[in-house]
Amino acid sequence: MMHITFYWGKKATILFDSWRTDSWPGYLLSLLALFAAAFFYQYMEDRRVRFKILAGSKPSLPPPPSAVEAPFLLPPSASAFFRPSARLASALLFGVNSAVGYLLMLAVMSYNVGVFVAVVAGLTVGCFFFISGGEADFVASQNSCGCP
């Protein structure tokens, strides 16, 4: 039976019918795997952000014209100077990270409290280790969407 409210218990179906937990050891191993996946998600996000910063900082751009001199001209984006291989790598990292994020979301939608806590704890610990610097704020201010 599928739950539509939060519940606590060792019996859970996570993502697939074949990933069912019926015992405490299996349940705890599943929670550990979800914690590791959430931690990995934050690691991959950090790698993607760092790659974007490194790839975007290589070209030296001329200073943009002032708004008075050229009101309708936008300054060239650093991403326009990416090599195609760097853009492909950035897009692949974004795709892997998005896939892991959606799988974590679907796991939380099992409505098991332990699964929810494991995923949130993994994201929190991963954020502490990988994204506690200022790089994420820099990229967020440069790019309003989550795309590479």
From TrEMBL:
InterPro entries: Cop_transporter (IPR007274)
Membrane topology summary: Multi-pass membrane protein
GO cellular component: plasma membrane
Keywords: Copper, Copper transport, Ion transport, Membrane, Transmembrane, Transmembrane helix, Transport
Subcellular compartments: Membrane
UniProt superkingdom: Eukaryota
Ranges that cross the membrane: 24-44, 88-107, 113-131
Entry GO MF terms: copper ion transmembrane transporter activity
Family: Belongs to the copper transporter (Ctr) (TC 1.A.56) family. SLC31A subfamily.
PANTHER family xrefs: COPPER TRANSPORT PROTEIN CTR1, SOLUTE CARRIER FAMILY 31 COPPER TRANSPORTERS
Protein name from the UniProt record: Copper transport protein
Species: Musa acuminata subsp. malaccensis (Wild banana)
